[in-house]
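Before relying on records like the one below, remember that each one covers exactly one chain. Contacts with other chains, cofactors or solvent are not represented anywhere in the record.
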Amino acid sequence: MNRHVLSIVVVILCAGCRHVENTPVPVVNLLREVDHAEKRPPNGFEIAALEVDGQPRPSIVAPVPSRLTIPLPLPRRGVLRAFVSLDPNSTGAVRLRVGVSDNRIYERLTNIDLSPGDRRWIPVQTDLSAYAGWKWSLFYHPERIVWHVVLAADAMGGGPARALWGSPEIVTDKEAAKEYSVRRQQFR
């Protein structure tokens, strides 16, 4: 009798376990959002396929100093991923920032300092999960907000520089990607 009960328990536990795939799913290609973004200064931004250290990447080329503000709702469990570098002709040091704003406050999420000697793609990941999903609040509903993702480049000294944001995208898991696809249509 005990073996039958144990067998039933094992079957129930195995049936309840399922493989959850954690492969990130791209949901926003930030290269496609540049046209809708607020650019400061208004000129000097471009999209180009650039090679750094033998690795080509589609990139946002930004003057330094600059700020690119991209309005969009954010996915649950979202992560902004990019590779950053300096244009090969840059002679100044640069601080790159990733932040989020709701038009009232700005939250700096990631800082990356680059020196003129950095001639490689540096991977960057910024957690955006606080800006979507259900929260314990009567008033705070992050999924109803069009957030402003800010990609900024600040001069830190030296000569002129241009920053490269290579392959910038927002990724999430498969389940959140499906939900985001439906929700994003409401904001268009």
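The domain at 24-186 is CATH 2.60.120.200 (Jelly Rolls).
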